[in-house]
C-alpha cells in the first residue's frame, strides 16, 4: 500500500484534516486555505476514509432506544415512595437526557479519537457543571454546604487543613532514629499528583517554556497566599526542590519526551474490514484510543502584541483554575481525596485539552474569527468558581497580602508592563527613527521593510 505523507489521503476522503460531520457523513467543501492541513503537512499521515457503523449518524435508533427506556420507567418499573430517592433519580435522568440530546445535536470539536461523540458528551458535562455552579452562586454558604450532604452525607463538615510548613530542618540531629522525618512527613499523595499532573498538563500545553512559567508562578502564588490557606505554607525546599524541581520538573520532562514521540509517530489509519489478520484488527481497536494525528503548538508569544496578551490570558486562566482547586474545596468543605475533587480534576484535564487546542487555533489561524465553545465555557467555569469562593468566604479571600509580597507583585507587574511597551512600541519607534536617519544620510527616498520580529499583527500564521 502506498504511503501518504503530509495531507495525503486516499481518494475516498476529500481531506484528512478537515473536520468531518458525523451526523450527515459529508465533508465540508475545501477552501483555498486549510489551516489544519498546513499545520500537519509534515506529519506521516494516511487515512483510507473508511466510515463504519459507529461513525454514522443514528438519530432514529437513539430516539427509539431512548423512548423504550422512558416507556419502561413510566409503565413497568415498580414505583418508590421515597421522595429523596425519586428526586435524585429524576435529576440524574435529566442530566443523562440533556447529555444525550447534546451528543446528538452539538457540533464536533477538534478531537475525533476515540470518537467525536465522547468529546461532545464531555462538552455537555461542562455545561451541566457551569449550571450547577450558577445554582450554587444563588445559595448561601450554609445552604450550599448542606446541599453537598445530598451527594455524600459525610460532606458539609469543616476540613482540618494540614500545614506543610512547621520545621524546615532537612536533617534533624535531635532525632537520630529518623533524621529525615520532616521530608517523609511532607511526602504524601500530592507528590504523585504533582508528577503525573504535570506530565498530563505538558501534553495539554505542548510547550516547555509555558509549562515552566506556570509551574514557577504557581509556587510564587503559594508563597503569596499562604496566609489565607494553611496548606499553601510549605518549606522552601518543599516549594522549589520537591515541587518545582523534582515532581513538576520530572513531569514536564516526561511530558516533553511524550510530545516528541507523538509528533514523530506515524499515523496510518485503515478500516477494520481492510485489515486481514485478527491481530491487526485487535491492534487497530487499541489504536482507536490514540490520537488521530498530533498537532504541535508553536505559541510564539512575542511575535505580535495580540499573541502576547493572549498568552498572558492563557497563563492567568490556567493559574486561576489551579487556585480554584484549593479554594473551592476549602469553602465547600470537600476533602481532597473525595471523588468530587478528583472528578473535577479529570474533567478539567479533558476540557482543558480541547480549550487549549481551540485557543491555539484562534491565535494562529487567520481565518478563525471567534474563540471555540469549549474555551468560552471553561473560562466561564473558572470565573464562576472564583465568584462562588468570594461569596462563600469573603473574609478569607480578601485578607490583604503581606507587605513584602504586595511589593513583589507590584514590581513584577510594572516590569511586565514596561517590557511590553518597550518591545511592542518603543523598539519599533526607535527602529523607524534609525531608518529615517539612515535614509537621510544615504540620500535614499524609500525605507527598507521592517524586520519580521517587529511587525505588529494581532493574528500570526506560519
TrEMBL record:
Listed Pfam families: PSS
Q: What is its EC number?
A: 2.7.8.29
Mind telling me which GO cellular component terms the entry cites? endoplasmic reticulum membrane
Name the residue ranges with Basic residues bias.
453-462
Give membrane topology per the record.
Multi-pass membrane protein
Which leading EC class covers this enzyme? transferase
Q: Where is this region: Disordered?
A: 1-34, 440-462
Citing just one GO molecular function, the answer is:
L-serine-phosphatidylethanolamine phosphatidyltransferase activity
Record-annotated membrane-spanning stretches: 53-75, 87-105, 117-138, 208-225, 237-256, 308-327, 333-354, 375-394, 406-426
Q: Where in the cell is it found?
A: Endoplasmic reticulum membrane
Task: From the UniProt record, give one GO term of the biological process aspect.
Answer: phosphatidylserine biosynthetic process
Give UniProt keywords alphabetically: Endoplasmic reticulum, Lipid biosynthesis, Lipid metabolism, Membrane, Phospholipid biosynthesis, Phospholipid metabolism, Transferase, Transmembrane, Transmembrane helix
Please give the superkingdom of this protein's source.
Eukaryota
Sorted alphabetically, which InterPro entries does this protein's record hold? PSS
Q: Which family does it belong to?
A: Belongs to the phosphatidyl serine synthase family.
What's this chain's function? Catalyzes a base-exchange reaction in which the polar head group of phosphatidylethanolamine (PE) is replaced by L-serine.
Q: What is this protein called?
A: Phosphatidylserine synthase
Amino acid at each position: 500500500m502506498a504511503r501518504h505523507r503530509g495531507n495525503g489521503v486516499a481518494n475516498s476522503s476529500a481531506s484528512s484534516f478537515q473536520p468531518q460531520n458525523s451526523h450527515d457523513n459529508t465533508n465540508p467543501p475545501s477552501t483555498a486555505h486549510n489551516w489544519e492541513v498546513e499545520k500537519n503537512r509534515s506529519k506521516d499521515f494516511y487515512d483510507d476514509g473508511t466510515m463504519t457503523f459507529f461513525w454514522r449518524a443514528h438519530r432514529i435508533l437513539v430516539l427509539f432506544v431512548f423512548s423504550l427506556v422512558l416507556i419502561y420507567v413510566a409503565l413497568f418499573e415498580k414505583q418508590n415512595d421515597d421522595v429523596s430517592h425519586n428526586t435524585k433519580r429524576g435529576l440524574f435522568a435529566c442530566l443523562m437526557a440533556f447529555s444525550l440530546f447534546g451528543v446528538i445535536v452539538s457540533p464536533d470539536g477538534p478531537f475525533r479519537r476515540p470518537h467525536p461523540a465522547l468529546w461532545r458528551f464531555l462538552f455537555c458535562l461542562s455545561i451541566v457543571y457551569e449550571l450547577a455552579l450558577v445554582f450554587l452562586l444563588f445559595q448561601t454558604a450554609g445552604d450550599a454546604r448542606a446541599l453537598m450532604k445530598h451527594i455524600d452525607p459525610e460532606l458539609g463538615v469543616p476540613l482540618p487543613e494540614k500545614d506543610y510548613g512547621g520545621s524546615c530542618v532537612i536533617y534533624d540531629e535531635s532525632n537520630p532514629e529518623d533524621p529525615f522525618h520532616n521530608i517523609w512527613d511532607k511526602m504524601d499523595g500530592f507528590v504523585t499528583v504533582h508528577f503525573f499532573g504535570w506530565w498530563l498538563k505538558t501534553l495539554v500545553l505542548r510547550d516547555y517554556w509555558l509549562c515552566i512559567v506556570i509551574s514557577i508562578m504557581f509556587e510564587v502564588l503559594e508563597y503569596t497566599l499562604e496566609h489565607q490557606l494553611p496548606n499553601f505554607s510549605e518549606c522552601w525546599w518543599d516549594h522549589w526542590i520537591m515541587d518545582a524541581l523534582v515532581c513538576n520538573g520530572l513531569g514536564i520532562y516526561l511530558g516533553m519526551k511524550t510530545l516528541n514521540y507523538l509528533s514523530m509517530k506515524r499515523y496510518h489509519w485503515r478500516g477494520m474490514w481492510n485489515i486481514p489478520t485478527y491481530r491487526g484488527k485487535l491492534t487497530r481497536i487499541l489504536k482507536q484510543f490514540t490520537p488521530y494525528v498530533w498537532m504541535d503548538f508553536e505559541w510564539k508569544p512575542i511575535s505580535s502584541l495580540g499573541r502576547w496578551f493572549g498568552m498572558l490570558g492563557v497563563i492567568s486562566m490556567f493559574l486561576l483554575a489551579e487556585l480554584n482547586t484549593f479554594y473551592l474545596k476549602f469553602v465547600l468543605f470537600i476533602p481532597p481525596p473525595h471523588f468530587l475533587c478528583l472528578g473535577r480534576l479529570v474533567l478539567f484535564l479533558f476540557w482543558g485539552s480541547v480549550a487549549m487546542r481551540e485557543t491555539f487555533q484562534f491565535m494562529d489561524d487567520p481565518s478563525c474569527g471567534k474563540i471555540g465553545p469549549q474555551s468560552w465555557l471553561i473560562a466561564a467555569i473558572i470565573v464562576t468558581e472564583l465568584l462562588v469562593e468570594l461569596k462563600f468566604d469573603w473574609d478569607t479571600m480578601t485578607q490583604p497580602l503581606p507587605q513584602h509580597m504586595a511589593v513583589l507583585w507590584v514590581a513584577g507587574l510594572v516590569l511586565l508592563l514596561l517590557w511590553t511597551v518597550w518591545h511592542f512600541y518603543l523598539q519599533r519607534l526607535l527602529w523607524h527613527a534609525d531608518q529615517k536617519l539612515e535614509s537621510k544620510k544615504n540620500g535614499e527616498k524609500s525605507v527598507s521593510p521592517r524586520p519580521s520580529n517587529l511587525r505588529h499583527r494581532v493574528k500570526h500564521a506560519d
